[in-house]
């Protein structure tokens, strides 16, 4: 990745938007949609404690001047249609509140990001946000059912998988949360060691099972020669090891990666 995607909490926070015309108006609408308070001048925004700014002038010299001043004041800046001057870019957002999916191209093509969003709009059910709220409300029940964090995560992963009880791409899954939790026939092992033999260092060659296990593993055991592109498919918070300790971990899912 060449940039770090973040969701910035803007509710009630000031954001500077400089410029006139439709591009500036679009940024003002975006800020207000996210709950932010638009400041139309650098001075007012800085006094209010703004941390982000958008610059949308037609004149290139004005853009460069304002970007320099905003950065000097310690703000992160987005200059519309000037990726070379951007500290951050704004993605195309698919909104299923509280689920937000952002499609970004690092400023390469806003049209491509929008096209991807529109395709996914047709795939995701309208009640996806309700599923997220249902899982949030069930946090206490989930901890009681699976006190071990790894077991709990794997139970949720299984339910959310394709065809699972809470498949997020299926309309109506939000209504199944309480019923899924009340069932007694789904148990998750607390421990397990799985060895994967990869066909190549290309992540596109991973089987569906291999990709799923890499995404679920608590511990990844691999040699130094393993491609970073494969490791990037693992959970970001999974522990990385070069060899399995003795004794082996008794809880969690451990995946040992071998390459041909």
What does this structure look like?
With 260 residues, the chain is an alpha/beta fold. The protein folds into four domains: 14-89, 3-Layer(aba) Sandwich (Rossmann fold); 91-124, Double Stranded RNA Binding Domain (2-Layer Sandwich); 128-182, no CATH class; 191-259, Tetrapyrrole methylase, N-terminal domain (Cobalt-precorrin-4 Transmethylase, domain 1, 3-Layer(aba) Sandwich). Helices cover 35% and strands 18% of the residues. The protein has ten helices and ten strands. It has helices at 22-33, 42-48, 60-72, 110-121, 128-137, 139-145, 149-160, 177-182, 208-216, 228-231, and strands spanning 14-18, 37-39, 52-55, 76-79, 92-96, 99-103, 191-198, 219-221, 239-241, 252-259. It has a four-stranded parallel sheet, with helices on both faces. Helix 10 (228-231) links the parallel strand 8 (219-221) and strand 9 (239-241). The radius of gyration is 23 Å and the shape is globular. The model has no long low-confidence stretch (mean pLDDT 90).
> How many angstroms does the end-to-end distance come to?
27 Å
Task: Please name the CATH architecture of the largest domain.
Answer: 3-Layer(aba) Sandwich
CATH topology of the largest domain: Rossmann fold
**Number of separate domains:** 4
Reading off the top of the CATH hierarchy, the class of the largest domain is best stated as: Alpha Beta
Number of helices: 10
For the largest sheet, list the strands in their spatial order. Answer: 2-1-3-4
Radius of gyration: 23 Å
Low-pLDDT residue intervals, each spanning 5 or more residues:
none
Strand % is: 15-25%
Q: Which outline best applies?
A: globular
- Helix share of residues? 25-40%
Q: What's the mean pLDDT score?
A: 90
CATH H-level superfamily of the largest domain: NAD(P)-binding Rossmann-like Domain
Classification by helices and strands: alpha/beta
Order of helices and strands: EHEHEHEEEHHHHHEHEHEE
Instruction: Give the biggest beta sheet.
Output: 4 strands, parallel
Number of strands: 10
């Amino acid at each position: 990745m060449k940039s770090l995607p973040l969701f910035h909490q803007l509710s009630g926070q000031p954001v500077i938007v400089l410029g006139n015309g439709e591009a500036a108006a679009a940024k003002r609408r975006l800020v207000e949609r996210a709950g932010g308070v638009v400041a139309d001048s650098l001075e007012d925004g800085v006094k209010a404690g703004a941390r982000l700014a958008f610059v949308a002038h037609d004149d290139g010299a004005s853009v460069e001047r304002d970007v320099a001043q905003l950065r000097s004041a310690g703000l992160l800046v987005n200059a519309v249609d000037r990726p070379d001057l951007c500290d951050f870019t704004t993605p195309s957002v698919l909104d299923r509140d509280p689920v937000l999916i952002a499609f970004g191209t690092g400023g390469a093509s806003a049209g491509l990001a929008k096209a991807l969003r529109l395709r996914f709009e047709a795939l995701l059910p309208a009640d996806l946000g309700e599923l997220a709220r249902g899982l949030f409300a069930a946090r206490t029940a989930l901890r009681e059912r699976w006190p071990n964090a790894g077991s709990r995560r794997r139970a949720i992963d299984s339910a959310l998988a394709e065809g699972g009880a809470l498949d997020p791409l299926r309309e109506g899954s939000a209504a199944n949360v309480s019923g899924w939790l009340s069932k007694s026939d789904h148990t998750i092992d607390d421990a397990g060691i799985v060895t994967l033999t990869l066909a190549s260092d290309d992540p596109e060659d991973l089987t569906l099972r291999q990709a799923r296990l890499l995404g679920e593993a608590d511990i990844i055991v691999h040699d130094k020669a393993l491609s970073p592109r494969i490791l990037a498919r693992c959970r970001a918070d999974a522990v990385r090891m070069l060899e399995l300790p003795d004794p082996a971990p008794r809880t969690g899912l451990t995946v040992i990666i071998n390459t041909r």
